[in-house]
Design brief:
alpha+beta, six-stranded mixed sheet, single chain, about 30% strand, about 30% helix
Length: about 240
């Protein structure tokens, strides 16, 4: 398996532990390895806002062994072989975060295949001078003009999202939605700063607090909707977004 070198993976894991929002705002991560039955390991994992396992794989490239790893992780969690730790409220609903230096055309086809049965995200990674850069590669960084996910939610929620994005775009300041269909990240020129989730009870949003932690807003509540829009307005940036 073409894994990152140990020192590179350690640096990347430490960076993500310090700033999980680089992958998705609101994630809670820990670097306590999970060893699967084959001996393969998951070196970074945690939970999202809805309590689903978020499992990270870090590779130089996605070769045959990397896809074997992905398949083993998917089946181990979905079949209940892993994920029994009490931290995982929804252990059989894993989400995969795949980080790789290179993604080929055939990788996108395979990722789409996996996405039919599991939530999966892929990031291109690059080592900068003092840090690692993550760029969402799959799903497409920006949703297209056709947004079927928006049509599948309640009208009140759809109206709110459109109102929030309209507020974000005033004055030509750009904030984008990334990901899709769910969860969605709200991204400015500095990267993701909030995440939007669809739960059984309605929309939830993870937004940053003043001490750089995150709080959960219930968008069924008028006050929380106001707080969500306020957070978006405070995180507008005039620079162009680099996707």
């Amino acid at each position: 398996m073409t894994l990152l070198a140990d020192d590179s993976q350690f640096e990347l894991i430490q960076q993500l532990l310090q700033k999980p929002a680089a992958a998705e705002p609101g994630l809670l991560l820990r670097a306590e390895p999970i060893t699967m039955r084959s001996g393969n390991r998951i070196d970074l994992h945690g939970i999202d806002l809805l309590g689903r396992p978020c499992l990270f794989g870090m590779f130089l490239e996605l070769d045959a062994q990397a896809y074997d790893w992905l398949l083993e992780v998917i089946t181990s969690f979905r079949d209940g072989l892993e994920g029994a730790d009490p931290i995982y409220q929804r252990g059989r609903e894993p989400r995969l975060f795949v980080l790789s230096h290179a993604l080929r055309l055939e990788d996108y086809s395979r990722l789409r295949f996996f996405a039919e049965s599991i939530s999966i995200r892929a990031f291109r990674i690059a080592k900068l001078t003092t840090s690692w850069q993550l760029r969402l590669a799959y799903p497409e960084p920006e949703p297209g003009l056709s947004q079927p996910w928006l049509e599948c939610i309640e009208e009140k929620d759809r109206d709110f999202i459109q109102r929030m994005l309209a507020a974000a775009g005033r004055g030509g300041v750009k904030i984008a939605l990334q990901g899709g269909p769910w969860p969605m990240n709200l991204v400015n020129s500095e990267g993701p700063f909030a995440s939007l989730h669809s739960s059984e009870s309605g929309l939830l949003m993870s937004v940053p607090t003043q001490d750089e932690k995150y709080t959960i807003l219930d968008l069924n509540l008028p006050l929380d909707r106001d707080l969500a829009i306020d957070s978006v307005l405070r995180h507008r940036r005039t620079e162009e977004i680099s996707l």
